[in-house]
Structures are given as structure tokens and as C-alpha cells.
Amino acid sequence: MHNFQKLILSLVALSILSCGKSSSSSSAATPEPKFIFLSTSTNDGNIGGIDGADTICQRDANKPSLHAGATYKAMVVGNTRHACTTANCSGGQSENLNWVLSPYQAYMSADSVLIAITNENAIFSFPLLLGAAIDSTATGDYAWTGLSSDWTNFADNCNNWTDNNSYSGARGDPTASDNTSIFNSNPNCAAPNKLYCVEQ
Questions:
Q1: pTM (2 decimals)?
Q2: What is the pLDDT of residues 143-153, one digit of tens each?
Q3: CATH superfamily label, 35-103+124-199
């Protein structure tokens, strides 16, 4: 049933993207797609915590001009933000804490390509329904996430994103359309990485 719902939502979202606007009835049924973009700036693991990461996203020059006035937050998790406490939020959306994605919401890349639609737990199911990447042109770039491949918090997160020396942190591959988009590796926190920035 959920796959059927996703397919219907995908078709509606694609219709919104292709037309540039929707009728009041369709916008009531399906929220307008929101953007996820890859930050232009690279940072080591000391990004000032979750709040610091959000500030980087809000000020980033790569914000899509179509929704430039929107609020953007970083898709990084730590002690004050998480998506799931069990694998893929098996306990439901109540596991979300200060989470940046919304349930049943379509998200598109900075160049207005539909990435996917979240499920009832406000996470993407992998592989992504439409197979689109957050940034297919960002070969060689990675984004700090703090996430494991099942949307739970990875064991290390650069001491809650305040350290660039003694710890490691999880990062994802923005060119991927599977769970390596949120967890690809966990380098030392001195490594420079970008951020996924999500429209709120």
C-alpha cells in the first residue's frame, strides 16, 4: 500500500514540477515539493554543533533561488536531533527529534529534479523511488550526516559536531540513490565535508 501511495505522490509531485503551479485541490492533497541542496562550503567536524550546521545551511550561497527566502536546516544528527532510534523508525514517527524531513513530503534537488518522497516516518525508503541523487554532479564530494545506513545515529559524530581532531564522523555520498547517500564512510573529523541542507 505504501508503495502505491508513493507512486501516486510521485506523479502528483512531477505534475507540480512540470507545471510550476498546482490547483488548490491538488496542493491541499500533496504539499509543494521542497528543496534539498549540497552546501557550497566544506567544513571539518567542528561545525558548531547542530545549531552551527543549521546556520551554515541558512547562509549558504547554494540555496535555490526559487525558494531562497525559505528556512533551511542541516541533515545532521547528534544529541539534539535524530531521525530514528530504531532501524528505519520501526516505532513510528514519534522517534523523530527536531528532525529536518517531513512525512509524505516530496523533495527535489537544487536543479529541480525530484529526488523522492518521504514515508510516514519522515525518512526516505531506499533505494530511492525515482533513483535521483541529491546532487548527481558532486563526484568526489561528501556530506556530514552523523547517520547510519538505517537512519539511526552513527556511533561517532565528531563529539556532537564540535571537534576536528580526536573523533570520526559519518558522512554520505550526494551522488548516490541508495543508503550510501546517508552513510558512506566515517572519516576523521579533520576531513573537509559539505552538508545536506533541507528546506523547512
A1: 0.85
A2: 999 999 999 99
A3: Mannose-Binding Protein A, subunit A (3.10.100.10)
